[in-house]
Amino acid sequence: SNDDIEDVSLFDADDDVSRRSKKSKIRHPVASFFHLFFRVSAIVVYLLCELLTSSFIACMVTIILLLSCDFWAVKNVTGRLMVGLRWWNQVDDDGRSHWVFEARKVSAQGSKTASEAESRIFWLGLITCPMIWVIFAFSALFSFKVKWLAVVVMGVVLQGANLYGYIRCKVGSRKNLTSMATNYLGKQFLRQTVTKEDQTAS
């Protein structure tokens, strides 16, 4: 159920100032560090490996290990700690597979609210890095670096899976991505209209 779940900021950058000041501290610095460390390290190794070594196997194994560590850390640790979201797959007694997407429920005291800074770090890393791997995939394809294509596809799949899982957690089962994008664009249009009217009135 998605009732009474915490509203973790995904796109909205214009939250209330007082609310933002209360949530600006990073409460999980180690989780925040490792949320970015493995995924950024995999990208850096991919970019620099041909300069550092001539061994393709060593580079491939290093990148895949970093991507696997990132997938595990983001799916099992950083998502839960930084934004109160988690997802997993479970198999029932009949052998059917079910995907489960959960969001932390808001406590009565509001003590479980996510830090705004951690939320921004989480979503920035989660969205940006898969986009970079997609760019690498097109680059490897068009430059005919077929041996690197498998590594790049692994990056797209592992980081894309986490991105999809957490967006499903955030959006919920009753909404889809199209309605979320429409609502966001509608809000932005309304804000711009109100701002122009205020400027005209003054």
TrEMBL record:
Entry GO CC: Golgi membrane
Annotated membrane topology: Multi-pass membrane protein
Subcellular location: Membrane
Keyword Secreted attached: no
Any one biological process term the GO annotation gives: vesicle-mediated transport
InterPro entries in the record: TVP23-like (IPR008564)
Main localization of the protein described in the UniProt heading: membrane
Domain of life per record: Eukaryota
Transmembrane parts of this sequence: 29-48, 54-74, 121-142, 148-167
Keyword line: Membrane, Transmembrane, Transmembrane helix
Keyword S-adenosyl-L-methionine: no
Family per record: Belongs to the TVP23 family.
Listed name of the protein: Golgi apparatus membrane protein TVP23 homolog
Organism: Oceanodroma tethys
